[in-house]
């Protein structure tokens, strides 16, 4: 009984964190405004998507600016990624920190990413609220992509593309048969 009293609270804390994990490594490169490639333990490479932050694609307005800012903040530095979501063995979705700087929050605050709640299962309610307020503030002061009247987030652009029937697709390269 004494053991349960001593270790019970610790056991509850461990059970509350089931499913959560941490990756520590060096950022090898920044793929785009919300994706890092991290060199982890044993030389393994991990692709890390920033939870809750969705940057414009490279071909969208502010896409390259988002990639450059994340590159300035993270490339070559050590990062700690708290994650619960794995797309596969080497593709993680998590909250990435360089020192005390939350990289996703920084992208959102800078107006270089949208906050998207759907991708935020790892973030606490307080963190989600912070991300949401950061996006609202960036929008209010028209920072980054919010200079555009109604910027199109990548997920909406992909949906619009899917709706175009093949008969309306642009022609392929010259000399190709249709």
Largest sheet data: 5 strands, mixed, barrel
Tell me the series of helices and strands, N- to C-terminal. Answer: HEEEEHEEEHEHH
Total domain modules? 1
User: What is the oligomeric state here?
Assistant: single chain
Strand-pairing-aware structural class: alpha+beta
Radius of gyration: 20 Å
CATH architecture: Beta Barrel
Query: How large is the share of residues in beta strands?
Result: 25-35%
- Report the helical percentage: 25-40%
**N- to C-terminal separation?**
77 Å
CATH fold annotation: OB fold (Dihydrolipoamide Acetyltransferase, E2P)
Question: So how many helices?
Answer: 5
Mean pLDDT: 83
Number of strands: 8
Question: What would you call the shape?
Answer: globular
Give me the side-by-side strand order of the main sheet. Answer: 1-2-3-6-5
Low-confidence stretches: 4-18
Reading off the top of the CATH hierarchy, the class is best stated as Mainly Beta
